[in-house]
Predict the 3D structure of the following.
Amino acid sequence: MDVERIIDDIEQLEEMFEAADIRPLSANDISAANRRHDEKLASSPWFRIWQDFGVCCRTESPVLRLPETYTSFNRLSSVPK
């Protein structure tokens, strides 16, 4: 077994994987990255506030998601007396 050749092969593989991926990101790549990011931060109260109020820098259309208790309150308060 040629130990030096194996070491050289390992070093070449390490260099290949250290190189940056220069391919452009597709819409699916960005969507998947955003989804993984959201799942990773889902337990953060700050992130939930960010999501609830629609503060966003993404290119997707913003969606205002109000908690059910808030929408129920608004329905009750808009009823004429």
